[in-house]
Design a protein that fits this description.
- With 235 residues, this protein is of the alpha/beta class.
- The chain has a single domain, classed as 3-Layer(aba) Sandwich (Glutaconate Coenzyme A-transferase), CATH 3.40.1080.10.
- The protein has 6 helices and 12 strands.
- Strands 1, 2, 3, 4, 5, 9, 10, 11 and 12 form a 9-stranded mixed β-sheet that branches. Strands 6-8-7 form a 3-stranded antiparallel β-sheet.
- Helix 4 links the parallel strand 4 and strand 5.
Amino acid sequence: MSKVYPTAAAALEGLLKDGQIILSGGFGNCGIPSDLIEAVRDSGVKNLTAVSNNAALDGTGLSLLLETRQIKKMISSYVGDCRIFAEQYMKGELEIEFNPQGTLAERIRAGGAGIPAFFTKTGAGTLIAEGKEERIFNGEAYIMETGLVGDIALVHAWKADTEGNLVFRKTARNFNPVMATAGKVTVVEVEHLVEAGEIDPDHIHTPGIYVQRIVHVPDRVKLIEKRTTRPRPAK
């Protein structure tokens, strides 16, 4: 059975339900599964828990689902530059579970590896540690963090073959690979789609066994989060 679907909506058909945990890859505006997020918005599902480093910028990425009030909780590292994210949190309209960035990445990786929990020094002795089990190892305090598994993982890849073997590029490798392994169902939007066998096995970052559905998105506009340019020299 083919893993390739004609549209993002088709790739998500039959998967989405109210109250799900959705993992969304990427870092800021880089490597975010934009077409899949828009398809989630258009589906109308609600009361979602979204796991993502942040919510991108206003008008992009998961902020689209915040605008429509489809997300009830975010599990993230930081609010970043997303105004609606910050506003909903400050008004008490959005629940947020903040995680140190490395801890969030490891929680997702652990979930994908079947590890239910692990101990880390990060956050010990701070507000992050409240309500969590603490143990002493070699004289140092560690807190227990649990692995994260999503009902659906939404992933953006630079290249994939029709069997779902994935290659990520540069900053888009932040969070996408671990989320691809931690979803009960993983749906990938890909810029370049090739036939099975065309990707050198040594270049594959995520094996196709983790991927259930693929949509080819060849012409997606890549957004620049913060444009930095040099002033033109005076003539």
